[in-house]
Sequence to fold (271 residues):
Amino acid sequence: MAELLTRSNLVVPSSRPALSPSRRGSSSPTGVSSLRVRNLGSSASSDMNGRKLVVGGGLSTSPRGFAQASGAQMSLVLGKALKWWQKGLQQNMKEVESAQDLVDSLLAAGDKLVIVDFLSPGCGGCKALHPKICQFAEQNPDVLFLQVNYEEHKSMCYSLNVHVLPFFRFYRGAQGRVCSFSCTNATIKKFRDALAKHNTDRCSLGPVKGLEESELLALAGNRDLSFTYTPKTAPTSPEEVPAIAPRPVLLPSIQRSTQESEEKTLVAAGR
Fold:
């Protein structure tokens, strides 16, 4: 009977309950078919009108159960697809997408401390340090961490004079860049000390500075970057123009007397 059901095209609806132990001896075709489908497990499939019924081991065949299983598998795939620099990111960590994005993020941070992390997927020191940076970000939610992927933004890093990795730059309000350095897990104390020093409560006097003027000009002059910058113009208002002392105007009589005195001095010196 089992051999006959295997070759047949019967499809057993998933909603039909399985036989109880007391009915296993029944010769009913329905009962035998249910037993056969249960024994096949996850490899059982039946064709009918071009459709297949696959019974997964322990998985529900209802639409809701199938959606839940698909969602779990999709989450698993996405989790495996994450790169090492994308894992463990906190809400205050952001990946920089362009030079304009970097400039805008620094200006929008206000008085917040901003740490720019320059990293590369092929940098072993960057990979080893990444979990520690994520931990610092979690412990300091008021600090903004910006990630710059060197492999994706080589030209921008060149304009910013970044030539060693991992590399960090700290920015704060009107002060602009307050420090920059390279460190690894062995020298992580340098990062910890800088974070403690520049993350103190303070109020900047003046507008947010962000990048240096020379860095902005370098980014604007880089043909590989779609970044424009207008240099600061000279002051035009009367209040901003520095006062220039007027040169004294000598009257003709004073000019003659001055010239005569100079001639007498030259004669006395024997010239």
